[in-house]
Amino acid sequence: MKLQTIYKGMALMALSLAFVSCMDGEWDTPDVTKPAYGNNSIEEVEAKQVTIGQLKNTYGSVINASGFQRITDDLQLKCTVIGNDIGGNIYKQICVQDATGAMIVGINGTGLFPFLSVGQQILINLQDLCIGGYGKQTQLGDEYNGSIGRMSTSKWENHVRVLPSHDMSQIDTLDFYNVAKSDMTRYCGHLVCLKDVQIGDADGTTTIAPEYTSGTTLTYNGSTNGYVHHTLNGESMSTLLLRTSTYADFAALVIPQQPVTLYGIATRYNNTWQILIRAEEDIKIDK
Q1: What percentage of the chain has pLDDT greater than the value 70?
Q2: What is the pTM of this model?
Q3: Domain end residue (candidates: 145, 170, 195)
């Protein structure tokens, strides 16, 4: 009986200590003025706003030369997130678009998708950021070793405001096969749809991306450093391909042998177009 009493006393003491610990934590006053993500002090000023199309026109020569330039004017960009790192295939960047175009935003950080979900509208303070071309792909970021690179996460959070609006209807998806060759540059970075697509190498066992071991070099389909390339509808590998990271959450997905409808971000590296699927759900088997 005495032993049971001692056990009960010990249990009550442990419970009391746990309760006190919880109470101690509640004495910390949260900073309710600081947003969970981004910079709420950025005021939306319509007179300062530019479009992605205007940015591409203004810095077109820099982008096409794979150079970069720092934006010194007090400008803002209001846009919608169309791609993030939720599936592990888009790495340290997000994809944004507005009614005039689309582009990549390079951010040296991961775990962006909880704050920057697809459909989320954001306001970017462009002043002191860099814009340029990586293989002629328009990118917003910062200078890195004399070229366009990613900005630090602290700089990004200081330059972005997450707006209260979240609207999937703002996202325009293009049928990429019906885009005229002359218009392809305009839609670089855009969310696209490719219908009735046959992904190359589909044999019932081959996966989207084989396992990658750090320190090795993949030669599968001419890819290196953890990326795999697949042809689409027999297109030449030099003009259009499906680019997938071996670190993607869906890397082990067996390539469907049936035709599929494919969604993804149409990016480019010089004259090669690369479709980046965002998650496994972007591959839909046609029925």
Answers
A1: 80
A2: 0.82
A3: 170
